[in-house]
Amino acid sequence: MTDIIQLLPDHVANQIAAGEVVQRPASVVKELLENAIDADATEIKLIIKDAGKTLVQVIDNGKGMSVTDARLSFERHATSKIKSAEDLFQLNTKGFRGEALASIAAIAHVELKTKRAEDELGTAIEIEGSQVKSQEVSVTPTGTSVAVKNLFFNIPARRNFLKSDTVELRHITDEFHRVALAHPSIAFAFYHNGSELFHLPSENYRQRVVHIFGNKTNEKLVPVEEETEVLKISGFVGKPEYSKKTRSEQFFFVNQRFIKSPYLNHAIGAAFEGLLKDGYHPSYFLNLTVDPKTIDINIHPTKTEIKFDDEHTLYAILRSAVKHSLGQFNIAPVLDFEHQSNLTTPYNYKNKAASAPTIEVDRSFNPFADEANTKPPSQHRQFKKAPAASWESLYVGLESKGNNKQEDFAEVAFESDSKTESIFSDASVETAKTTFQLQQKYIVTTLKSGMLIIDQNRAHQRVLYENFLRHITIKEATSQQLLFPLQLHFTPGESKIIKDLKTDLEHTGFVFSGLSEEEITITGVPVGVPESEVSIILEQLISDVQNDVPDANFSATDLLAKSMAKSLAIKNGQSLNGTEQEHLVNSLFACKEPNVSPTNRPTFITMKVDDIEKKFM
Questions:
Q1: What does 273-321 look like in DSSP terms, one character per residue?
Q2: All domains of the chain, ordered by start, with CATH?
């Protein structure tokens, strides 16, 4: 029998390694931006075409590379960051494993131009699928330019897994935000299809957060500063009233590297305990600085997960620091049982001497004497006593009528309760008896064959979903005008989502009078939608677009109808009277697809009499 184990060719091994490092264009953006930062660049440009499928280019003014380094940088496990395994625990750079450029070159067309400051001429290299096509001397500015074209050109299956341009651009934007927030001292520029999306100058951390998420963000931030022997914390958390349903504004940076940590996120949630509404998440932009020896960042291919040496201590410090900031800036309510506000001396009485109170007593005052015989109490004050009526006058006009007791009671009339007929017919009363609400979550009613149990939230979602779809399709939805225009503030990215869905939103009944990058003005809302629910609906819609967009062939109309139905549907725990229960049941079975909710979950179940009888056997 022949041997069956064999070594893989280098180009196949590189393609397999690329599957771990490069999942989508955003992965290429992350790796190239981190390489530019490691090269000590102060200005970085990111140029994207067709959401990275056609071009991802990063231009920096960093140190550049020599001819030998430029050629060697595309070899697997070639790196200048580490020389031994022990160096993994002394890392102060982004890339260190030497896999990024080799993996990218295996699945794309790559053009590299680089030059050091001390060199007169630079180097230009072209690689296609790990094969070096050309290497020559080039006239290029100091720094490095890496252009990645036609991603996954030699792996069509991987390219087919890419989502729509909208989704891929959102992932690229998220990676750009993470790198830009971690390095506010570096100037960044971001271009997509020739238009500038972001232009961030070198600035402090607060300015960087405001430039990325909009000017309105400035008033939402609460600074957090804490320094201990094991951990240094700096950054900001958002005020509780500006919390969101999404986690789009949650950023942890450990030693200037973005990470995801559910454990530390729980610490922030514990600090905000009692300050947030159900289903809402706090915003935070926190930089954590720890000793590199106490963390292991080599546990995940994308290096977004880190293993800490002592997580419990970090949890306690982080929770306390955030809670202290919320209390220090009067965000969280503080109870001081030792302080009494009525004993606090006003500032204008600070230097005044206390005056002793004087007491005046009228020793000749007799409360039983008549007013005529009462003398003035003193020369300073006169006490006036109200004339006391004789107690006998209280009974004047009352005569004994002992003989007429029967007549008095004959004249007494008693009030009777007025009878009002029911607004609804007897049929509705009977229906109310046949429907029953279980635990304010399910509606139970009877069938010929047994019992029907309806989930009120899902059922109402189905009813609203089909109504909104009908309104959007026929474009005849009615709206109610607001007395005062409603102004809502969003980040530039969120405002763009609303702009893209503006036409469909208007077909449901929304009326917009202004749409800017950070502010949206609404003058009309769909009939039946409370004004207080408008911001919740739009936030839910933005969240659904950001997280639940399937692919390029999704329907914006369908997504909008689902999102609005989810926001406005009757919630579990809401009590319904018999008429409301009947109306919901009838509306559900008038739908085209009453069996499932808009998210394809069952709206009701049935229990036959035979099944119930089996329970008693």
A1: TTTS-TT-B--EEEEEE--GGGEE--SSTTS---EES-HHHHHHHHHHH
A2: 10-200 (3.30.565.10), 213-328 (3.30.230.10), 434-606 (3.30.1370.100)
